[in-house]
Amino acid sequence: MPRMLDVSEDVRAEIGDEEADRLLSGENSPGSYDCTSCRTPGDSEQERTSTVLFVGEETAVLAFAHATCIPSQVVQVAEDQLQGAVRSITGGEPRPQRAQGAPAASSNQAVLGVTSGLVLIEGDLHPALVVEPTAPIVRPGSDATTDEFLPLLIEQGFQPLGDLNQVPAPLPGWSVLLAMGQLHAVLQPGTGGGTPTAWWQAHQPLQVTEGWRTAANKSHTVLVFAAPVGSIGQQPREDLLRDALEKAAANGRLVAAAMPLAGT
């Protein structure tokens, strides 16, 4: 019987009409699957299912997800990340997880360290990412040495956060890409409304805890906090991570935004 599949125009353009029609007819798609976002079982005969095409430099992988988790879309992923995304996922410890990756514009060889953790706000646990450069970020094309990381983010729509007890405002056009149960990128709007591009992209996909994924799939939203180099550090526990965030906020060194999970 026909599957309850959503195939976006972008996905159809990549895989071709013939393959898309085979998917929609049920000829070439699985009935059951593991959602590429939340990693829980899905059934394309019983619930709406998104086709998600991950495209690398040489490899393309078609995956399936609950339509309630992410829409059908094409996701550009670095080749090494795509290879990592198709590996099986092992369980993680309930502690902050950290990865490094390149920002869209970097300076002095700075990279952005990203830590995942759960943050308690107004009685609810929120999945969060904390972004901190390894060196000062200067304005592109400038000869100045002043750290412009926070002003640059505020220009992009991030809001200064002086109190960690309030949920940050949404940032339109930005999203957090979680694929195959791992964190791959923070995406920003493409130029002229084009395909979103990676503002931060992990060198190696970052495994997040089951608790983080559960909270993210419940709210479909990730809180992204950012602070200048030296403000947060690599905290081994979520309570220490929160303490560092609160200190940065009190010192006027924290900006934040709420982003949809894997949305574009």
Task: Describe the fold and architecture.
With 264 residues, the protein is of the alpha+beta class. It contains 6 helices and 15 strands. The strands form 3 sheets. A 9-stranded mixed β-sheet has the order 10-15-14-9-8-7-13-12-11, with helices on both faces. Strands 1, 4, 5 and 6 form a 4-stranded mixed β-sheet that branches. Strand 7 and strand 8 form a beta hairpin. The protein is globular, with a radius of gyration of 19 Å. The model is unreliable at 86-96 and 99-109 (pLDDT under 50).
Give me a quick take on this structure.
Residues 16-46 are annotated as: Disordered. Residues 26-39 have a biased composition (Polar residues). The protein has 264 residues and is α+β, with helices and mostly antiparallel strands.
Order of helical and strand elements: EHHEEEEEHEEEHEEEEHEHE
Output the radius of gyration: 19 Å
Shape annotation: globular
Low-confidence stretches: 86-96, 99-109
> What is the strand content?
25-35%
**Mean pLDDT level:** 80
Structural class: alpha+beta
Supply the number of helical segments. Answer: 6
Total E-strand runs: 15
The end-to-end span amounts to 30 Å
Spatially, the strands of the biggest sheet line up as 10-15-14-9-8-7-13-12-11
- Domain tally: 2
Helix content: 10-25%
What about the largest sheet? 9 strands, mixed
Biased composition (Polar residues): 26-39
Region (Disordered): 16-46
